[in-house]
């Protein structure tokens, strides 16, 4: 019925790229000064910093599709099918409610007062009600998608509990974070940095 909409922090993506570039430059500079040993002394720490920024700011997102709402946080992903969805709130960040389950989206914080005013101006100029990347834009997109699905009759007869929300662990970030932390710790212990 509609395209999948993805909401994530645009600042987080730029921050991840900047941290990655800075890490490569710092490790390269250390290698020029101290030789190949500097790769073991600085590389794992730079890799750990990049892995942390990636897990915190690159991966998290909220997807709104015809099948429901998927919230990808740092360590866990929650999928809420439309029949289970009860509310979306935007106090500090986007919160999705499905019965007793409340999922807070790390990727889409609520806009500041200035951000909300700028987004309102952009919407006024473009006429697009769901533009933006903050919690308010995501909540509006959720409300519009749910209304469109209900109006088209896709939610008629849907029973609560037939397809419950699913919450799963994000294994890739867990493995990457633990591996890079172990490498950094080994580097610190073997080079006397601790």
Automatic annotation (TrEMBL):
Locate the Low molecular weight protein antigen 6 PH domain: which residues?
60-124
What domain of life does the UniProt record list for this protein's source? Bacteria
Where does the chain cross the membrane? Answer: 12-32, 38-57, 169-189
Keyword terms of this UniProt record: Membrane, Transmembrane, Transmembrane helix
Q: Which InterPro entries match?
A: CFP-6_PH
What is an example of a Pfam family matching this protein? Answer: bPH_6
- Signal sequence interval, chain numbering: none
Can you name this protein? Answer: PH domain-containing protein
Organism equals Ruania alkalisoli
């Amino acid at each position: 019925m509609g395209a999948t909409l993805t909401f994530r922090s645009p600042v987080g993506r730029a921050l991840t790229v900047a941290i990655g570039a800075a890490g490569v430059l710092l490790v390269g500079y250390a290698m020029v000064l101290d030789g190949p040993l500097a790769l073991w002394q600085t590389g794992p720490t730079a890799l750990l910093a990049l892995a942390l920024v990636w897990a915190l700011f690159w991966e998290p997102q909220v997807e709104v599709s015809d099948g429901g709402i998927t919230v990808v946080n740092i360590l866990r992903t929650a999928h809420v099918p439309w029949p289970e969805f009860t509310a979306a709130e935007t106090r500090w960040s986007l919160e999705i409610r499905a019965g007793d389950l409340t999922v807070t989206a790390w990727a889409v914080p609520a806009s500041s007062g200035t951000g909300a005013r700028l987004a309102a101006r952009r919407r006024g100029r473009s006429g697009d009600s769901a533009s933006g990347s903050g919690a308010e834009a995501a909540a509006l997109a959720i409300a519009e998608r749910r209304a469109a699905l209900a109006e088209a009759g896709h939610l008629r007869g849907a029973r609560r509990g037939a397809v419950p929300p699913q919450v799963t662990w994000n294994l890739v970030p867990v493995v990457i974070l633990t591996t890079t932390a172990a490498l950094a710790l080994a580097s610190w212990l073997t080079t006397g940095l601790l």
